[in-house]
Amino acid sequence: MLKVAIEKAGYEKRESKIREIAFEVKSGELLGLLGSNGAGKSTTIKTILGLLKEWKGTVTFENGTRYAYVPEQPVFYDSLTLWEHLELAAAATSLADEDWQEGAQDLIRYFQLENVMYHLPSSFSKGMRQKVMLITAFMLQPDVYIIDEPFLGLDPRATKDFLKLIEKERARGAAILMCTHVLDTAERVCDRFVLLSNGTLLAKGSLKEMREQSGLEIDSSLLDCVDTLMEQRV
């Protein structure tokens, strides 16, 4: 569904923030994008989304693939209500009313925001704003999700609800690239991982393969693997 082969990318012509990063996300797969602050995760996502001018390589979505992006920091228009934001997203993707309205209302109820459906998101809490971003993405039912730090601001119930929707979308065949620092949850829900360090690819593969690459025991956690691999790099 998505193939990434970035030779280099950055914000200025002679300054590359990331180099030699390659991976793919398959239909029905959840791939975790991992790394410490400054490792290059955000730059990688921006490159995939076509937001950087200074980059070399290839980013290929399968023919006809539609994707949705959920940013780490929710973005809203000050004068639009929650529902008006959904109407705008539907219009931008040329969805007819019958193709999104019922699903959007179901998602609003699912995330318990029906009482603020016609309120301005600028007045919402961090968790509520994050829910609106998730509702917008899930409502569109894209082929590929690119999700940046989805757990920030979500309470335990909302996190559980989000993960249930992720599983439902995977069963539908959607491919998901999820950037996260929450390694215990990533270990539980992701099929494979891509670990970045200092702007380059440090390791990738399943948990079993990460254990093999780090030289740890078969019962080692993802956190143990990441720590060991990063220490080995140093």
Taking all Cα atoms into account, the compactness measure Rg is: 18 Å
Q: What is the arithmetic mean of pLDDT?
A: 94
Number of E strands: 9
* Largest sheet composition: 6 strands, mixed
Count of spatially separate domains: 2
| Succession of helices and strands | EEEHEEHHHEHEHEEHH
Instruction: Give the N-terminus to C-terminus distance in angstroms.
Output: 34 Å
In the sheet with the most strands, the strands line up as: 5-6-7-3-8-9
Helix percentage range: 25-40%
Globally, the shape reads globular
The fraction of residues in strands falls at 15-25%
The second-level CATH architecture of the largest domain is 3-Layer(aba) Sandwich
Please give the oligomerization state of what you see.
single chain
Indicate the structural class.
alpha/beta
Keywords: ATP-binding, Nucleotide-binding, Transport
Protein name: ATP-binding cassette domain-containing protein
GO molecular function: ATP binding; ATP hydrolysis activity
Pfam families: ABC_tran
